[in-house]
Structures are given as structure tokens and as C-alpha cells.
Amino acid sequence: MRVRHAAWADQFYPGNADQLKQIINSYLQMSEKLGFERIVGLVSPHAGYVFSGRTAALAYKQIQGKKYATVVLIAPSHGAFIDGVSAFNGDCYETPLGRVPVDEPGVTTLADAASNIHMSSTGHESMGDRAEHSLEVQLPFLQMVLHDFKIVPLVFHDYSWDNCRQLGEAVATVFDPDHTLIVASSDLYHGHSYSECQRMDDATLHSMENDSPIQFCFSSNNQKVMACGAGPITALKIIAEKWGAQQPQVIARSNSADVTGAKGGYVVGYAAAVAVKS
């Protein structure tokens, strides 16, 4: 078995399975189910659970009990250099809650569908300073709210329009909205100004909800909006458009300063959003 072992247990979230279940359950119990019927996509933050767990939980609460055969996880690479998009070429991702199988035929078909998508372990390593957290931290939430699903783990950092467009169009072609969930992993503003976090997150979330995929992508590349997962969000927006779904709707926002009460230092913004198909 080619297993991607948990790299961030006991750092971004509890490494003990019982404690991990307890904290996620507590977040889910505090979250309201808002009545969305056909959710095809989520935007969820990827900070440590103590910072963004409650915001992420509201996104995952909306799909609790629903059925998806495949979850396509689109995440940013914070460390590894990646040519195009790296689609995990292993058998499963592992968390303290168990192993999550990879949809290997789906990964293969996706890589065949677009020249910029490569089957690789790059960006998926669990050892060393390139171990990526942005995809891993989504998995325990998925394990708590869904059953009998497989994942397509995708990681990249080239947020050019061409790279995002090819990825989004390929995913929309290979997978269908009746059996697939897309998760775009992203935090928002990173910096030292609480007021700038509020201003920039306003702009980012307004663009995510209202602008076309290409407008959002260009705004990110021109630093008019800020999201470390701007590429994954762009891909989700493309997929939603191709599937005839609505653009992502924001259902929650927060930031690390509001969570900790410390508004004088470094601050990171978070949001949860859903893409719904009628």
C-alpha cells in the first residue's frame, strides 16, 4: 500500500482518535444546518483547528449525511514546487481516524484528460519540511460527516489562468455533479493588520461570490484579493460554472484575531462557502 501518513496530527489537530472525534463533534454540534439540498462544492479553511475549526465545521455540517462517491480535494502547495497540478499517485491518505482510499481510476482518468495534471507524490509527502497541511486537515472532517467515499487529492501553486482553467475543465468533464463533491482548501488574508484583514476579506469574498472565474483569478494574481487557495477557489468556480451550479456562497467568516482575542499581531482570515446546484 502506498500510504500518505498523517504529518500534522498533534499539531494542527489532535493526534488521538477519540480526542479528534470529540473536538470535531463539538464543532459540528455548534453548527447549524442551513437547508442546502444539492451541494457540489465547499470552500473550507485549513489552519489549526483551534483557529479555523468552527468555520470549517459549518461548511462540513452542510453535507453531513449526504452521499458522494468521490471527493475531489483541491489544495494549495505551501512548500513543494509543482509543475502544473500534482494528483496523488498512491492508494490512500491516513489520519488518526483511519485510511481514506484514493479513487485511483478517477486520478488516472483526470491525469489523462489534461496535460498539466500529473500523477505524482510531489506535494503529498508526509515527511520533512515539504509536508503539506492544507489537504490533510480537511480529511478528518470528511471522515466524520461522510461514509463510503474515495478522494482525488490535488495540490498545486501555479495560479495562472491557464493552469486553473485546464484543471477546472478537466475535473468538470471527468466527474459528474450527481456523485462528486469538490472541496477547495483556502485561508484568506495573511498579515499584520486587523483592519486590512477585514477590508481584504470583504473584497475576496465579494469577488468569490460575484465575479466570473477569470475575474477572480486575475484579481488574485493582481493582489486585489488575497487567498492562499485562490487557485483551488478558481478551479471550484470553473467547475460550478461548467456544472450549471451557483458560484460559491459565503456562509461563515472569521479570523484568527477574533478567535484568540489578540488583535495586535499577525492575523489570518477564514471563510466557509458552498456551491449549490438546483
Which radius of gyration do the C-alpha atoms yield? 17 Å
Main sheet? 9 strands, mixed
Shape: globular
> How many strand units?
12
The total of helices stands at: 9
Low-confidence segments, given as residue ranges, are none
CATH structural class: Alpha Beta
CATH-assigned fold name? Protocatechuate 4,5-dioxygenase, Chain B
CATH architecture: 3-Layer(aba) Sandwich
Q: In angstroms, what separates the terminal alpha carbons?
A: 39 Å
CATH homologous superfamily label: LigB-like
**How many discrete domains?**
1
What's the pLDDT, averaged over the residues?
A: 97
Note the beta-strand portion: 15-25%
Judged by helices, strands and strand pairing, the structural class is alpha/beta
Helix share, percent: 25-40%
Secondary-structure element series: EHEHEEEEHEHEHEEHHHEHE
